[in-house]
Amino acid sequence: MIFHDRYLVGCAALAVAALVTIPPAHAQAPTQPTDAALNAEAAQNDWPTHHGTYKSYHYSGLDQINTGNVKNLEVAWMHFPERATRGIQSTPLALDGVLYYSGSYSRVYALDGATGKTIWAYAPELDEELVAKQTHSPYNRGIAIGHGNLYVGTVDGRLIALELKTGKPVWDTKLLDSKKMTVGFTGAPLVVKDKVIIGAQGGEWPHRGPIFGVDGKTGAKKWEFFTVAGTEEAMKTWGGDSWRTGGGGGWMPGAYDPETNAVWWGTANPAPLYDWGGADWKKSGPRPGENLYTTSVIALDPDTGKLKFYHQELPHDAWDFDSSVGEFVMIDRGGKKLVVHANKGGHIFVYDRSNAKIENVWPLVKNINFVKSIDPKTGELIGRRDLVEGKVDPPLCPAIAGGISWNSGAYSPKNGLFYRIGQEWCMELTVEKTTPILEPMAQLNIGATFKFIPPPDGPARGHLSARDPVTGAKKWEVTYPQPPLASVLATAGNLVFVPDSVGIVHAYNADTGEELWSRNNGMGHNAGIISYMAGGKQYVAVPAGWGSLVADEFVALYGEPFKSMPKNTGALVVFALRQ
Protein backbone atom coordinates (compact mmCIF):
# COMPACT_ATOMS: atom_id res chain seq x y z
CA MET A 1 0.00 0.00 0.00
CA ILE A 2 1.58 3.11 -1.06
CA PHE A 3 0.61 4.93 2.05
CA HIS A 4 1.06 2.19 4.43
CA ASP A 5 4.58 2.69 3.59
CA ARG A 6 6.03 -0.55 4.14
CA TYR A 7 11.26 -4.24 5.60
CA LEU A 8 19.49 -10.66 6.94
CA VAL A 9 23.44 -14.84 5.45
CA GLY A 10 24.36 -11.31 4.50
CA CYS A 11 28.08 -11.72 4.33
CA ALA A 12 29.23 -12.55 7.80
CA ALA A 13 32.09 -10.17 7.26
CA LEU A 14 29.63 -7.35 6.86
CA ALA A 15 27.40 -8.48 9.68
CA VAL A 16 27.99 -6.56 12.83
CA ALA A 17 27.01 -9.74 14.63
CA ALA A 18 28.28 -10.60 18.07
CA LEU A 19 29.29 -7.69 20.15
CA VAL A 20 28.47 -10.34 22.74
CA THR A 21 29.70 -10.49 26.30
CA ILE A 22 27.32 -8.37 28.31
CA PRO A 23 24.77 -10.58 30.08
CA PRO A 24 21.32 -9.11 30.70
CA ALA A 25 20.98 -7.66 34.16
CA HIS A 26 19.24 -10.00 36.60
CA ALA A 27 18.29 -12.43 33.85
CA GLN A 28 14.98 -14.18 34.38
CA ALA A 29 14.19 -17.85 33.83
CA PRO A 30 14.16 -18.64 30.10
CA THR A 31 10.78 -18.19 28.44
CA GLN A 32 9.46 -19.95 25.36
CA PRO A 33 8.19 -17.14 23.10
CA THR A 34 5.43 -19.22 21.56
CA ASP A 35 4.15 -20.27 24.98
CA ALA A 36 4.06 -16.68 26.16
CA ALA A 37 2.44 -15.56 22.94
CA LEU A 38 -0.49 -17.91 23.44
CA ASN A 39 -1.90 -16.04 26.41
CA ALA A 40 -2.28 -12.29 26.51
CA GLU A 41 -2.81 -12.20 30.25
CA ALA A 42 0.11 -14.52 31.11
CA ALA A 43 2.88 -12.85 29.12
CA GLN A 44 3.39 -10.17 31.72
CA ASN A 45 7.15 -9.84 31.89
CA ASP A 46 7.79 -10.12 28.16
CA TRP A 47 6.68 -8.92 24.75
CA PRO A 48 7.42 -12.07 22.76
CA THR A 49 5.70 -11.38 19.44
CA HIS A 50 4.83 -8.36 17.30
CA HIS A 51 1.31 -7.81 18.62
CA GLY A 52 2.33 -8.70 22.17
CA THR A 53 0.68 -12.10 22.01
CA TYR A 54 -1.29 -14.08 19.45
CA LYS A 55 -4.40 -12.33 20.75
CA SER A 56 -3.19 -8.97 19.36
CA TYR A 57 -4.11 -7.01 22.47
CA HIS A 58 -1.06 -4.72 22.53
CA TYR A 59 -1.55 -5.01 26.27
CA SER A 60 0.96 -5.49 29.07
CA GLY A 61 -0.12 -7.29 32.22
CA LEU A 62 2.40 -5.28 34.26
CA ASP A 63 1.08 -2.75 36.78
CA GLN A 64 4.21 -1.51 38.55
CA ILE A 65 3.67 1.66 36.53
CA ASN A 66 0.09 2.76 37.15
CA THR A 67 -2.28 5.71 37.34
CA GLY A 68 -0.99 6.59 40.81
CA ASN A 69 2.71 6.87 39.96
CA VAL A 70 2.99 7.36 36.20
CA LYS A 71 3.79 11.02 36.90
CA ASN A 72 7.19 9.76 38.11
CA LEU A 73 8.08 8.17 34.77
CA GLU A 74 11.43 9.31 33.40
CA VAL A 75 14.01 8.27 30.81
CA ALA A 76 15.97 5.23 31.99
CA TRP A 77 18.17 4.81 28.91
CA MET A 78 18.31 5.43 25.17
CA HIS A 79 19.76 3.65 22.17
CA PHE A 80 20.63 5.21 18.81
CA PRO A 81 20.62 2.92 15.76
CA GLU A 82 22.86 3.48 12.75
CA ARG A 83 21.47 4.51 9.36
CA ALA A 84 18.04 5.45 10.70
CA THR A 85 16.66 6.39 7.27
CA ARG A 86 12.93 7.17 7.57
CA GLY A 87 13.27 7.02 11.34
CA ILE A 88 12.34 3.90 13.31
CA GLN A 89 9.13 2.09 12.39
CA SER A 90 9.48 -1.24 14.17
CA THR A 91 7.86 -2.75 17.24
CA PRO A 92 10.49 -4.04 19.72
CA LEU A 93 10.33 -7.45 21.37
CA ALA A 94 11.39 -8.29 24.94
CA LEU A 95 12.22 -11.68 26.38
CA ASP A 96 13.93 -12.64 29.66
CA GLY A 97 15.15 -9.11 30.35
CA VAL A 98 16.58 -8.52 26.87
CA LEU A 99 15.09 -6.02 24.41
CA TYR A 100 15.39 -6.66 20.66
CA TYR A 101 14.47 -4.29 17.87
CA SER A 102 15.08 -3.63 14.19
CA GLY A 103 15.96 -0.43 12.41
CA SER A 104 16.24 0.67 8.81
CA TYR A 105 18.11 -1.63 6.41
CA SER A 106 16.92 -4.56 8.57
CA ARG A 107 19.59 -3.95 11.19
CA VAL A 108 18.88 -5.70 14.47
CA TYR A 109 19.95 -4.89 18.03
CA ALA A 110 19.89 -6.92 21.26
CA LEU A 111 20.12 -4.73 24.34
CA ASP A 112 20.16 -5.28 28.08
CA GLY A 113 16.60 -4.33 29.00
CA ALA A 114 17.62 -2.67 32.27
CA THR A 115 20.67 -0.69 31.15
CA GLY A 116 20.50 -0.43 27.37
CA LYS A 117 23.98 -1.87 26.94
CA THR A 118 24.53 -3.61 23.63
CA ILE A 119 24.64 -7.41 23.79
CA TRP A 120 24.94 -7.81 20.02
CA ALA A 121 24.09 -6.04 16.79
CA TYR A 122 23.66 -7.32 13.26
CA ALA A 123 23.72 -5.54 9.90
CA PRO A 124 22.92 -7.59 6.79
CA GLU A 125 24.54 -6.99 3.45
CA LEU A 126 21.79 -5.60 1.21
CA ASP A 127 21.52 -4.86 -2.49
CA GLU A 128 21.96 -1.10 -2.13
CA GLU A 129 21.16 -0.46 -5.79
CA LEU A 130 17.83 -2.21 -5.37
CA VAL A 131 17.10 -0.42 -2.11
CA ALA A 132 17.61 2.93 -3.87
CA LYS A 133 14.92 2.00 -6.42
CA GLN A 134 12.27 1.01 -3.92
CA THR A 135 9.61 3.50 -2.94
CA HIS A 136 9.05 2.41 0.61
CA SER A 137 12.40 1.09 1.76
CA PRO A 138 14.64 0.87 3.65
CA TYR A 139 12.60 0.79 6.85
CA ASN A 140 11.73 -2.37 8.75
CA ARG A 141 8.67 -2.81 10.93
CA GLY A 142 9.55 -5.71 13.13
CA ILE A 143 11.07 -9.07 13.99
CA ALA A 144 10.04 -12.44 15.44
CA ILE A 145 11.54 -14.83 17.98
CA GLY A 146 11.30 -18.62 18.21
CA HIS A 147 13.30 -21.88 18.08
CA GLY A 148 16.27 -20.12 19.69
CA ASN A 149 16.39 -17.69 16.77
CA LEU A 150 15.45 -14.16 15.88
CA TYR A 151 13.91 -13.69 12.42
CA VAL A 152 14.00 -10.59 10.23
CA GLY A 153 12.92 -9.93 6.64
CA THR A 154 14.84 -7.76 4.20
CA VAL A 155 13.83 -5.38 1.46
CA ASP A 156 15.72 -7.49 -1.09
CA GLY A 157 13.44 -10.48 -0.52
CA ARG A 158 15.19 -12.58 2.13
CA LEU A 159 14.23 -14.03 5.50
CA ILE A 160 17.16 -14.39 7.88
CA ALA A 161 17.50 -16.33 11.14
CA LEU A 162 19.95 -15.10 13.77
CA GLU A 163 21.01 -17.01 16.85
CA LEU A 164 19.11 -15.28 19.63
CA LYS A 165 21.95 -15.28 22.15
CA THR A 166 24.76 -14.15 19.82
CA GLY A 167 23.22 -12.55 16.73
CA LYS A 168 25.19 -14.89 14.47
CA PRO A 169 23.45 -15.90 11.22
CA VAL A 170 21.89 -19.36 11.27
CA TRP A 171 20.32 -19.38 7.80
CA ASP A 172 19.42 -16.92 5.02
CA THR A 173 16.62 -17.85 2.61
CA LYS A 174 15.86 -15.97 -0.58
CA LEU A 175 12.09 -15.94 -1.05
CA LEU A 176 11.48 -13.20 -3.61
CA ASP A 177 13.21 -12.14 -6.82
CA SER A 178 13.24 -8.53 -5.71
CA LYS A 179 15.35 -7.36 -8.66
CA LYS A 180 12.48 -8.37 -10.90
CA MET A 181 9.50 -7.71 -8.64
CA THR A 182 10.94 -4.63 -6.84
CA VAL A 183 9.19 -5.55 -3.60
CA GLY A 184 10.64 -7.30 -0.55
CA PHE A 185 9.75 -7.64 3.13
CA THR A 186 9.16 -4.71 5.46
CA GLY A 187 6.79 -6.21 8.05
CA ALA A 188 7.50 -8.51 10.95
CA PRO A 189 7.37 -12.30 10.60
CA LEU A 190 5.12 -14.43 12.81
CA VAL A 191 6.31 -17.66 14.44
CA VAL A 192 3.60 -20.33 14.62
CA LYS A 193 4.62 -23.80 15.78
CA ASP A 194 7.54 -24.93 13.56
CA LYS A 195 6.93 -22.26 10.90
CA VAL A 196 7.97 -18.66 10.37
CA ILE A 197 5.30 -16.87 8.34
CA ILE A 198 5.96 -13.65 6.47
CA GLY A 199 4.04 -11.68 3.84
CA ALA A 200 5.48 -9.70 0.96
CA GLN A 201 4.78 -6.18 -0.08
CA GLY A 202 2.38 -5.93 -2.99
CA GLY A 203 -0.51 -3.54 -3.38
CA GLU A 204 0.61 -1.01 -5.92
CA TRP A 205 3.17 -3.33 -7.55
CA PRO A 206 2.09 -5.60 -10.42
CA HIS A 207 2.65 -8.99 -8.84
CA ARG A 208 0.60 -11.50 -6.78
CA GLY A 209 1.60 -10.64 -3.19
CA PRO A 210 2.63 -13.99 -1.68
CA ILE A 211 2.68 -15.09 1.96
CA PHE A 212 5.33 -17.68 2.86
CA GLY A 213 5.62 -20.45 5.42
CA VAL A 214 9.27 -21.28 6.23
CA ASP A 215 10.75 -23.98 8.47
CA GLY A 216 11.97 -22.11 11.56
CA LYS A 217 14.97 -24.37 12.14
CA THR A 218 16.26 -24.94 8.60
CA GLY A 219 15.02 -21.97 6.57
CA ALA A 220 13.44 -24.26 3.97
CA LYS A 221 10.39 -22.81 2.25
CA LYS A 222 7.45 -25.08 3.05
CA TRP A 223 4.57 -23.28 1.38
CA GLU A 224 3.54 -20.15 -0.50
CA PHE A 225 0.07 -18.67 -0.71
CA PHE A 226 -0.75 -16.08 -3.37
CA THR A 227 -3.11 -13.38 -2.12
CA VAL A 228 -4.01 -12.70 -5.75
CA ALA A 229 -5.83 -15.59 -7.41
CA GLY A 230 -4.42 -18.09 -4.92
CA THR A 231 -7.20 -20.63 -5.50
CA GLU A 232 -9.37 -21.67 -8.46
CA GLU A 233 -12.26 -19.77 -6.90
CA ALA A 234 -10.17 -16.63 -6.67
CA MET A 235 -8.85 -16.94 -10.23
CA LYS A 236 -12.39 -16.53 -11.54
CA THR A 237 -12.70 -13.12 -9.88
CA TRP A 238 -10.05 -11.50 -12.10
CA GLY A 239 -11.07 -10.60 -15.65
CA GLY A 240 -8.71 -11.75 -18.37
CA ASP A 241 -5.08 -11.96 -17.26
CA SER A 242 -5.40 -9.11 -14.75
CA TRP A 243 -4.51 -11.53 -11.92
CA ARG A 244 -0.94 -11.70 -13.23
CA THR A 245 -0.38 -8.08 -12.16
CA GLY A 246 -2.99 -7.94 -9.40
CA GLY A 247 -0.97 -6.49 -6.50
CA GLY A 248 -2.10 -7.89 -3.16
CA GLY A 249 0.39 -8.95 -0.50
CA GLY A 250 0.25 -9.23 3.26
CA TRP A 251 2.97 -6.94 4.48
CA MET A 252 2.00 -6.69 8.16
CA PRO A 253 2.00 -9.75 10.44
CA GLY A 254 -1.26 -11.38 11.40
CA ALA A 255 -2.26 -13.45 14.43
CA TYR A 256 -2.83 -17.08 15.35
CA ASP A 257 -5.84 -18.85 16.85
CA PRO A 258 -4.65 -22.17 18.32
CA GLU A 259 -8.22 -23.40 18.87
CA THR A 260 -8.88 -23.56 15.14
CA ASN A 261 -5.20 -23.81 14.09
CA ALA A 262 -5.76 -20.75 11.89
CA VAL A 263 -3.37 -17.95 11.03
CA TRP A 264 -5.39 -14.79 10.40
CA TRP A 265 -3.76 -12.39 7.95
CA GLY A 266 -4.83 -9.11 6.38
CA THR A 267 -4.20 -8.64 2.67
CA ALA A 268 -3.31 -5.58 0.64
CA ASN A 269 -5.11 -3.75 -2.15
CA PRO A 270 -5.25 -4.75 -5.81
CA ALA A 271 -3.31 -2.97 -8.58
CA PRO A 272 -3.75 -0.47 -10.01
CA LEU A 273 -4.81 1.22 -6.79
CA TYR A 274 -7.44 3.32 -8.49
CA ASP A 275 -9.79 1.68 -10.95
CA TRP A 276 -11.55 3.53 -13.77
CA GLY A 277 -14.17 0.82 -14.45
CA GLY A 278 -16.87 2.82 -12.68
CA ALA A 279 -20.14 1.13 -11.79
CA ASP A 280 -19.42 -1.58 -14.38
CA TRP A 281 -16.35 -2.79 -12.46
CA LYS A 282 -17.46 -6.43 -12.59
CA LYS A 283 -16.96 -6.48 -16.35
CA SER A 284 -14.78 -3.50 -17.30
CA GLY A 285 -11.76 -1.53 -16.21
CA PRO A 286 -8.20 -2.76 -15.65
CA ARG A 287 -9.11 -5.64 -13.28
CA PRO A 288 -12.77 -6.68 -13.66
CA GLY A 289 -14.32 -8.67 -10.84
CA GLU A 290 -14.14 -8.96 -7.05
CA ASN A 291 -10.33 -9.47 -7.12
CA LEU A 292 -9.94 -12.18 -4.49
CA TYR A 293 -8.13 -12.34 -2.11
CA THR A 294 -7.11 -8.68 -2.05
CA THR A 295 -8.44 -6.37 0.67
CA SER A 296 -9.51 -9.42 2.65
CA VAL A 297 -8.91 -11.20 5.90
CA ILE A 298 -7.82 -14.76 5.26
CA ALA A 299 -7.30 -17.71 7.60
CA LEU A 300 -4.51 -20.09 6.59
CA ASP A 301 -3.49 -23.47 7.95
CA PRO A 302 0.04 -22.80 9.29
CA ASP A 303 1.09 -26.38 8.55
CA THR A 304 0.15 -26.39 4.87
CA GLY A 305 -0.58 -22.82 3.83
CA LYS A 306 -4.03 -23.89 2.62
CA LEU A 307 -6.91 -21.43 2.87
CA LYS A 308 -9.38 -22.36 5.62
CA PHE A 309 -11.84 -19.47 5.24
CA TYR A 310 -11.89 -15.75 4.42
CA HIS A 311 -13.92 -12.57 4.16
CA GLN A 312 -13.29 -9.90 1.55
CA GLU A 313 -13.85 -6.65 3.40
CA LEU A 314 -14.01 -4.50 0.25
CA PRO A 315 -14.82 -6.48 -2.91
CA HIS A 316 -13.02 -4.91 -5.87
CA ASP A 317 -11.25 -2.29 -3.75
CA ALA A 318 -11.11 0.79 -5.99
CA TRP A 319 -9.85 3.19 -3.33
CA ASP A 320 -6.69 1.67 -1.75
CA PHE A 321 -8.44 0.88 1.54
CA ASP A 322 -6.93 -2.52 2.10
CA SER A 323 -7.00 -4.95 5.00
CA SER A 324 -3.27 -5.26 5.72
CA VAL A 325 -3.66 -3.85 9.20
CA GLY A 326 -2.23 -6.83 11.06
CA GLU A 327 -3.99 -6.79 14.41
CA PHE A 328 -6.70 -9.39 14.99
CA VAL A 329 -8.01 -8.81 18.50
CA MET A 330 -9.30 -12.15 19.78
CA ILE A 331 -11.92 -11.85 22.50
CA ASP A 332 -14.70 -13.96 23.98
CA ARG A 333 -17.99 -12.14 24.41
CA GLY A 334 -21.49 -13.36 25.17
CA GLY A 335 -20.54 -16.99 24.64
CA LYS A 336 -19.04 -16.18 21.24
CA LYS A 337 -15.41 -16.37 20.16
CA LEU A 338 -14.77 -13.23 18.15
CA VAL A 339 -11.96 -11.47 16.34
CA VAL A 340 -11.88 -7.70 15.77
CA HIS A 341 -10.07 -6.28 12.74
CA ALA A 342 -9.57 -2.72 11.47
CA ASN A 343 -9.83 -1.85 7.78
CA LYS A 344 -8.01 1.12 6.28
CA GLY A 345 -11.28 2.54 4.96
CA GLY A 346 -12.20 3.52 8.53
CA HIS A 347 -14.39 0.60 9.59
CA ILE A 348 -13.94 -2.05 12.28
CA PHE A 349 -15.03 -5.58 11.33
CA VAL A 350 -16.05 -8.11 13.99
CA TYR A 351 -15.94 -11.79 12.96
CA ASP A 352 -16.79 -15.22 14.30
CA ARG A 353 -13.36 -16.77 14.91
CA SER A 354 -14.39 -20.15 13.59
CA ASN A 355 -15.40 -19.12 10.07
CA ALA A 356 -14.96 -15.35 9.48
CA LYS A 357 -18.71 -14.81 9.47
CA ILE A 358 -19.61 -11.15 10.03
CA GLU A 359 -20.86 -10.35 13.54
CA ASN A 360 -20.77 -6.56 13.22
CA VAL A 361 -19.23 -3.68 11.29
CA TRP A 362 -18.92 -0.18 12.73
CA PRO A 363 -17.24 3.08 11.60
CA LEU A 364 -14.34 4.46 13.63
CA VAL A 365 -14.09 7.76 11.74
CA LYS A 366 -16.62 10.34 10.63
CA ASN A 367 -15.39 11.31 7.18
CA ILE A 368 -16.21 8.38 4.91
CA ASN A 369 -17.75 8.81 1.45
CA PHE A 370 -16.40 5.89 -0.62
CA VAL A 371 -19.47 4.02 0.61
CA LYS A 372 -22.65 5.23 2.27
CA SER A 373 -22.43 2.42 4.80
CA ILE A 374 -21.49 -1.22 5.31
CA ASP A 375 -24.22 -3.64 6.36
CA PRO A 376 -23.37 -4.63 9.95
CA LYS A 377 -24.88 -8.11 9.54
CA THR A 378 -23.60 -9.12 6.11
CA GLY A 379 -20.64 -6.82 5.42
CA GLU A 380 -22.23 -5.76 2.11
CA LEU A 381 -21.08 -2.37 0.80
CA ILE A 382 -24.07 -0.05 0.50
CA GLY A 383 -23.90 2.87 -1.93
CA ARG A 384 -20.34 2.22 -3.04
CA ARG A 385 -18.73 5.04 -4.98
CA ASP A 386 -16.87 3.66 -7.97
CA LEU A 387 -14.54 5.91 -9.91
CA VAL A 388 -14.07 6.74 -13.56
CA GLU A 389 -11.20 8.38 -15.39
CA GLY A 390 -10.70 12.06 -14.58
CA LYS A 391 -11.21 14.31 -11.57
CA VAL A 392 -13.08 12.82 -8.64
CA ASP A 393 -15.71 15.22 -7.30
CA PRO A 394 -16.38 15.60 -4.44
CA PRO A 395 -12.99 14.68 -2.98
CA LEU A 396 -12.57 11.14 -1.68
CA CYS A 397 -12.79 10.47 2.07
CA PRO A 398 -10.76 9.21 3.77
CA ALA A 399 -7.47 10.03 2.03
CA ILE A 400 -5.15 7.34 0.69
CA ALA A 401 -3.48 7.09 4.12
CA GLY A 402 -6.79 5.74 5.36
CA GLY A 403 -9.20 6.41 8.16
CA ILE A 404 -7.05 3.81 9.92
CA SER A 405 -3.36 3.19 9.26
CA TRP A 406 -1.08 0.17 9.81
CA ASN A 407 -0.30 1.15 13.40
CA SER A 408 -2.09 -0.98 15.98
CA GLY A 409 -4.66 -0.16 18.62
CA ALA A 410 -4.85 -1.81 22.03
CA TYR A 411 -7.40 -3.81 23.98
CA SER A 412 -7.55 -3.97 27.78
CA PRO A 413 -8.98 -7.22 29.19
CA LYS A 414 -9.13 -5.32 32.47
CA ASN A 415 -11.97 -3.02 31.41
CA GLY A 416 -12.98 -4.49 28.04
CA LEU A 417 -12.22 -1.32 26.08
CA PHE A 418 -10.60 -1.11 22.63
CA TYR A 419 -8.34 1.90 21.99
CA ARG A 420 -7.88 2.88 18.36
CA ILE A 421 -6.47 5.85 16.46
CA GLY A 422 -8.62 7.25 13.66
CA GLN A 423 -7.64 9.73 10.95
CA GLU A 424 -9.93 12.43 9.58
CA TRP A 425 -8.74 13.65 6.18
CA CYS A 426 -9.74 13.56 2.53
CA MET A 427 -8.01 14.05 -0.81
CA GLU A 428 -8.41 15.58 -4.19
CA LEU A 429 -7.99 12.83 -6.74
CA THR A 430 -7.63 12.49 -10.51
CA VAL A 431 -7.88 8.94 -11.87
CA GLU A 432 -5.55 8.18 -14.77
CA LYS A 433 -5.42 5.08 -16.94
CA THR A 434 -2.18 3.12 -16.62
CA THR A 435 -0.52 0.03 -18.06
CA PRO A 436 1.44 -2.32 -15.78
CA ILE A 437 5.21 -2.02 -16.26
CA LEU A 438 7.07 -5.27 -15.62
CA GLU A 439 10.33 -4.89 -17.53
CA PRO A 440 13.13 -4.66 -16.75
CA MET A 441 11.81 -4.20 -13.21
CA ALA A 442 8.26 -3.88 -11.85
CA GLN A 443 7.08 -0.31 -11.34
CA LEU A 444 4.40 1.24 -9.15
CA ASN A 445 0.93 1.09 -10.67
CA ILE A 446 -1.15 3.73 -8.90
CA GLY A 447 -3.59 4.99 -11.50
CA ALA A 448 -4.08 8.48 -10.04
CA THR A 449 -2.59 11.70 -8.78
CA PHE A 450 -3.77 13.07 -5.47
CA LYS A 451 -3.42 15.73 -2.77
CA PHE A 452 -4.39 15.54 0.90
CA ILE A 453 -6.96 18.09 2.07
CA PRO A 454 -8.99 18.69 5.25
CA PRO A 455 -12.37 16.93 5.52
CA PRO A 456 -15.67 18.84 5.18
CA ASP A 457 -16.25 18.95 8.96
CA GLY A 458 -13.05 20.73 10.00
CA PRO A 459 -9.27 20.48 9.94
CA ALA A 460 -7.37 17.30 9.09
CA ARG A 461 -6.87 15.65 12.46
CA GLY A 462 -6.62 12.42 14.43
CA HIS A 463 -8.28 10.94 17.50
CA LEU A 464 -7.87 8.17 20.00
CA SER A 465 -11.17 6.70 21.13
CA ALA A 466 -11.99 4.13 23.80
CA ARG A 467 -14.78 1.88 22.61
CA ASP A 468 -16.59 -1.37 23.06
CA PRO A 469 -14.78 -3.51 20.45
CA VAL A 470 -17.94 -5.37 19.41
CA THR A 471 -20.56 -2.62 19.29
CA GLY A 472 -18.32 0.41 18.72
CA ALA A 473 -20.00 2.30 21.58
CA LYS A 474 -17.65 5.15 22.52
CA LYS A 475 -16.71 5.85 26.15
CA TRP A 476 -14.19 8.65 25.60
CA GLU A 477 -12.10 10.31 22.91
CA VAL A 478 -9.00 12.48 22.70
CA THR A 479 -8.42 14.63 19.60
CA TYR A 480 -5.00 15.49 18.14
CA PRO A 481 -4.28 18.35 15.71
CA GLN A 482 -2.26 15.81 13.66
CA PRO A 483 -3.04 12.09 13.45
CA PRO A 484 -0.70 9.95 15.57
CA LEU A 485 1.02 7.38 13.34
CA ALA A 486 2.40 5.12 16.09
CA SER A 487 0.80 2.15 17.80
CA VAL A 488 -1.02 2.25 21.14
CA LEU A 489 -0.20 0.40 24.38
CA ALA A 490 -2.62 -0.51 27.19
CA THR A 491 -1.41 -1.84 30.55
CA ALA A 492 -2.72 -3.49 33.71
CA GLY A 493 -1.71 -0.29 35.47
CA ASN A 494 -4.91 1.10 33.92
CA LEU A 495 -2.92 3.21 31.48
CA VAL A 496 -3.02 3.86 27.75
CA PHE A 497 0.15 5.19 26.09
CA VAL A 498 0.06 7.08 22.78
CA PRO A 499 3.24 8.34 21.05
CA ASP A 500 2.11 11.19 18.81
CA SER A 501 3.33 12.76 15.57
CA VAL A 502 4.95 15.89 16.98
CA GLY A 503 7.10 13.84 19.36
CA ILE A 504 5.12 13.69 22.61
CA VAL A 505 4.35 10.45 24.42
CA HIS A 506 1.05 10.66 26.33
CA ALA A 507 -0.21 8.46 29.17
CA TYR A 508 -3.96 8.44 29.85
CA ASN A 509 -6.23 6.94 32.46
CA ALA A 510 -7.63 3.93 30.61
CA ASP A 511 -11.12 4.39 32.07
CA THR A 512 -11.57 8.13 31.65
CA GLY A 513 -9.09 9.42 29.06
CA GLU A 514 -7.60 11.88 31.55
CA GLU A 515 -3.99 12.70 30.63
CA LEU A 516 -1.70 11.82 33.53
CA TRP A 517 1.80 12.23 32.04
CA SER A 518 3.60 13.32 28.88
CA ARG A 519 7.15 13.55 27.60
CA ASN A 520 8.54 15.21 24.44
CA ASN A 521 11.01 12.94 22.64
CA GLY A 522 11.89 15.69 20.16
CA MET A 523 10.86 13.85 16.99
CA GLY A 524 7.71 12.24 15.69
CA HIS A 525 6.76 8.63 16.23
CA ASN A 526 5.62 6.03 13.70
CA ALA A 527 6.50 2.74 15.36
CA GLY A 528 5.37 0.32 18.06
CA ILE A 529 5.48 0.83 21.84
CA ILE A 530 5.85 -1.99 24.39
CA SER A 531 6.27 -2.63 28.11
CA TYR A 532 8.35 -5.37 29.74
CA MET A 533 10.10 -6.37 32.97
CA ALA A 534 13.89 -6.49 33.50
CA GLY A 535 15.62 -6.94 36.83
CA GLY A 536 12.33 -6.69 38.68
CA LYS A 537 11.50 -3.32 37.16
CA GLN A 538 8.89 -2.35 34.57
CA TYR A 539 9.98 -0.41 31.48
CA VAL A 540 8.14 1.26 28.63
CA ALA A 541 10.06 1.30 25.32
CA VAL A 542 9.17 3.88 22.69
CA PRO A 543 10.96 4.02 19.31
CA ALA A 544 11.13 7.64 18.12
CA GLY A 545 12.03 8.79 14.63
CA TRP A 546 10.00 10.34 11.85
CA GLY A 547 9.77 9.55 8.18
CA SER A 548 7.31 7.68 5.97
CA LEU A 549 5.19 8.31 2.90
CA VAL A 550 2.31 9.34 5.14
CA ALA A 551 4.61 11.53 7.25
CA ASP A 552 5.74 13.30 4.07
CA GLU A 553 2.21 14.66 3.63
CA PHE A 554 2.29 16.39 7.01
CA VAL A 555 4.49 19.19 5.66
CA ALA A 556 1.84 20.45 3.23
CA LEU A 557 -1.00 19.86 5.69
CA TYR A 558 0.51 21.32 8.84
CA GLY A 559 3.81 23.10 8.14
CA GLU A 560 5.94 23.12 11.26
CA PRO A 561 7.25 21.26 13.13
CA PHE A 562 7.15 18.75 10.29
CA LYS A 563 8.81 21.00 7.74
CA SER A 564 11.96 21.06 9.87
CA MET A 565 11.66 17.64 11.53
CA PRO A 566 14.56 15.34 10.57
CA LYS A 567 13.49 12.17 8.75
CA ASN A 568 16.69 10.16 8.87
CA THR A 569 17.37 9.88 12.56
CA GLY A 570 15.92 7.87 15.41
CA ALA A 571 16.26 6.73 18.99
CA LEU A 572 14.83 4.02 21.19
CA VAL A 573 13.70 5.84 24.33
CA VAL A 574 13.06 3.64 27.37
CA PHE A 575 11.20 4.90 30.45
CA ALA A 576 11.01 3.67 34.05
CA LEU A 577 9.83 5.06 37.38
CA ARG A 578 12.13 7.49 39.14
CA GLN A 579 14.08 5.80 41.92
Automatic annotation (TrEMBL):
Keywords: Oxidoreductase, Signal. Its cofactor is pyrroloquinoline quinone. GO terms for molecular function: oxidoreductase activity. The keyword GTP-binding does not apply. Residues 47-357, 469-540 form the Pyrrolo-quinoline quinone repeat domain. Residues 1-27 form the signal peptide. Pfam families: PQQ. InterPro entries: PQQ_b-propeller_rpt (IPR018391), PQQ_rpt_dom (IPR002372), Quinoprotein_ADH-like_sf (IPR011047). Belongs to the bacterial PQQ dehydrogenase family. This is Alcohol dehydrogenase. It comes from Bradyrhizobium lablabi. The lineage of its organism: Bacteria, Pseudomonadati, Pseudomonadota, Alphaproteobacteria, Hyphomicrobiales.
